[in-house]
Prior knowledge:
The chain has helices spanning 3-17, 23-36, 51-55, 66-82, 89-108, 135-151, 154-188, 242-245, 254-265, 320-331; strands spanning 195-200, 207-213, 217-224, 230-238, 270-272, 279-282, 296-299, 311-314. It is of the alpha+beta class. The protein has two domains: 3-127, no CATH class; 173-333, no CATH class. The chain has a four-stranded antiparallel sheet, with helices on one face. A four-stranded antiparallel sheet has the order 5-6-7-8, with helices on one face. Helix 1 (3-17) packs across helix 5 (89-108), helix 1 packs across helix 6 and helix 2 (23-36) packs antiparallel against helix 6. It is globular and about 65 Å long. Keywords: Hydrolase, Membrane, Transmembrane, Transmembrane helix. GO terms for molecular function: hydrolase activity. The chain crosses the membrane at residues 63-81, 93-113, 125-148, 155-173. This is Metal-dependent hydrolase. Pfam families: YdjM (PF04307).
Amino acid sequence: xxPLTQGTLGxxxxxxxxxxxxxxxxxxxxxxxxxxxxxxxxxxxxxxxxLFLEYHRQFTHSLIFIPIGGAICALVLHLIIGKRxxxxxxxxxxxxxxxxxxxxxxxxxxxxGTMLLWxxxxxxxxxxxxxxxxxxxxxxxxxxxxxxxxxxxPLLARMGLAWALCYMxxxxxxxxxxxxxxxxxxxxxxxxxxxxxxxxxxxxxxxWKTVYETDDRYYVDAVRAxxxxxxxxxxxxxxxxxxxxxxxxxxxxxxxxxxxxxxWFSNGYIARDPIYSGRIMDIRYSLLPNEISxxxxxxxTPEAGRLDxxxxxxxxxxxxDRASVLWEMITGR
Length: 333
């Protein structure tokens, strides 16, 4: 999720476990440690644009790495903050470890995918219960952290933690309702999906993007799962078949290997862009949940050498019109 939310949840957990005197210090150390796992975004290569996809949410987000990550944060932050505030190294380690531990679990609640079991498995866990940015989740949690630190009342932090758990529970119920609506929509079309998923749209848990797979296509729609349920029909796209869609591609080339890397990252939800034939899309994400308009893709070129990598592209151009359409979906208009 966004750094503010990661830090805020990282703060509220050690605050909940601290006493009144240490609430401020626990929150500060937890806040910084709660963001630390995302330092893996700096693992990049100018020669390999997809390298960061393999390492983001990998070892730094693994459950087995939590005590190590907490210890690294404690060694740094104790010298800068903890020691000056009268904390022992053990207290700094506890607060940092609790903050660090919250990061991967929160990320797994989003749709991106987090390798919780690395190095034993490269499965990307995505529980699809919350958007990567959700003000309704973050702002009450942030208020609880600030009040707990300023008033020295751990109870307020515990109330914030309870809010976070309740909100995630509500997201789970919403997700399951959206899946049921997606299954009903597929049945109306005479389809028997090979798999079907529902993902929250941007910044809310009211409107959900449903994606289901048949033998040859992916179907994308949006549903409002509660408070006047409604279906926002979308469109479909053919699944990527490399031999058919990219007949010029050398199967032993780096670009061919990059397609498979992108397929793994996208959990198999990839298709060729119907407008630009050399672009391979991750159809899981779009600004409008009933659109096939990717937020990122890879581009391949027939002129590339056997060792040349595919290019990674982002497509995050938002318009006021599209934002207003999303708002109308959220508000049920």
